[in-house]
């Protein structure tokens, strides 16, 4: 008999302690405890929450922003590493699944960092690590492109879980690849972007993208977006006189939960810090698929064909069979953690 989970989800809308890795990790741990204390079995954190977003790339030229890039690299983390282990331990302690965005440093290249989404099971195992496939617009000054090795749906205690970072939720094929793996719960992590074009409503754009994924795939989406704190504004203001005006526009952040019909469940957050909670019943994903099941009967796989290369990209291959790997497979990380006392 088919059994589908019911659970409470939490979406965090907050700012990191800007470029302070240890303090931000402590904030993540505290928010995990808060969400779990309210009964949540899944908590989602914003894009690159550990420990900040490169706003300088939107308001400064590359030369002006170069020293800030170095600070970001220095604050980035490796996976596995002590910072993500501390978050994983909190997940296990509170028996809650966690999805968190981080700046991940390539362990073989100190100037190469990735926009990475990490998925942690409620027993503390790191079960997913997805590097953003294409950094968006000005972000190309900061992050290297990821590969599809982590473009996977993870089986968790609350159901099949997938995640994408910010603009990836606009990428139809990336989203379809998760739906095709049986995704029922989707986490979309974002940053507040006040410096978008004047006629662009970032909060509305986030909601529209989440609604599209929910309605097309008949899934639940948990949206977690960061905010721009006074600390961030003051830091950027010290390097650019127009930073406050550029980073203070309203309707720049949206966090909430949407259901399989594309509608928002409960009350979302716009711009303000807090945690959104919603009760999710995955059985609601069934009936809408009788009409549209785009990974099943409502498609023509004899007409359309999607191939996804999930081989990890490597810097070099050597004739003795060794390879310079810029990542440790998450499956290996999970085994390492399982054997720890």
Automatic annotation (TrEMBL):
Domain CN hydrolase, residue spans:
7-282
Which keywords does this chain's UniProt record carry?
Answer: Hydrolase
Q: Which domain of life does the protein's organism represent?
A: Bacteria
Location of the active site: 47
Family matches, as SUPFAM superfamilies? Carbon-nitrogen hydrolase
Instruction: Supply the CDD domains for this chain.
Output: nitrilases_CHs
Q: Which GO terms describe its molecular function?
A: hydrolase activity
Q: Which Pfam families match?
A: CN_hydrolase
- Keyword Hydrolase applies: yes
Q: Which PANTHER family match?
A: CN HYDROLASE DOMAIN-CONTAINING PROTEIN, NITRILASE
Q: Which family does it belong to?
A: Belongs to the carbon-nitrogen hydrolase superfamily. Nitrilase family.
The protein depicted here goes by the name Carbon-nitrogen hydrolase family protein
Give the source species: Herbaspirillum huttiense subsp. lycopersici
């Amino acid at each position: 008999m088919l059994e589908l989970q019911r659970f409470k989800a939490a979406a965090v809308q907050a700012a990191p302690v800007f470029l302070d890795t240890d303090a931000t990790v402590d904030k993540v741990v505290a928010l995990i405890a808060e969400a779990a204390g309210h009964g949540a079995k899944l908590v989602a954190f914003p894009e690159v929450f550990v420990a900040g977003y490169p706003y300088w790339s939107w308001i400064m030229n590359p030369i002006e922003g170069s020293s800030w890039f170095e600070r970001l690299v220095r604050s980035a983390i490796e996976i596995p590493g002590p910072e993500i282990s501390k978050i994983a331990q909190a997940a296990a302690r509170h028996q809650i699944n966690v999805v968190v965005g981080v700046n991940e440093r390539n362990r073989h290249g100190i100037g190469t960092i990735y926009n990475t989404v990490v998925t942690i099971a409620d027993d503390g195992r790191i079960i997913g690590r997805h590097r953003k496939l294409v950094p968006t617009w000005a972000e190309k000054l900061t992050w290297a492109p990821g590969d599809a090795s982590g473009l996977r749906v993870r089986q968790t205690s609350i159901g099949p879980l997938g995640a994408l970072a910010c603009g990836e939720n606009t990428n139809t094929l990336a989203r379809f690849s998760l739906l095709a793996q049986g995704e029922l719960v989707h986490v979309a992590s974002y940053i507040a972007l006040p410096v978008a074009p004047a006629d662009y409503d970032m909060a509305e754009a986030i909601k529209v993208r989440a609604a599209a994924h929910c309605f097309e795939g008949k899934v639940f989406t948990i949206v977690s977006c960061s905010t721009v704190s006074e600390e961030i504004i003051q830091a950027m203001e010290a390097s650019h006189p127009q930073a406050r005006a550029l980073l203070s526009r309203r309707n720049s952040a949206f966090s909430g939960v949407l259901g399989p019909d594309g509608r928002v469940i409960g009350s979302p957050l716009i711009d303000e810090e807090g945690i959104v909670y919603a009760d999710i019943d995955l059985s609601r994903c069934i009936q809408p698929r009788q009409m549209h099941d785009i990974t099943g009967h409502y498609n023509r796989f004899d007409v359309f064909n999607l191939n996804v290369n999930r081989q990890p990209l490597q810097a070099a291959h050597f004739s003795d069979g060794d390879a310079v790997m810029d990542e440790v497979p998450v499956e290996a990380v999970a085994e390492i953690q399982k054997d720890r006392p």
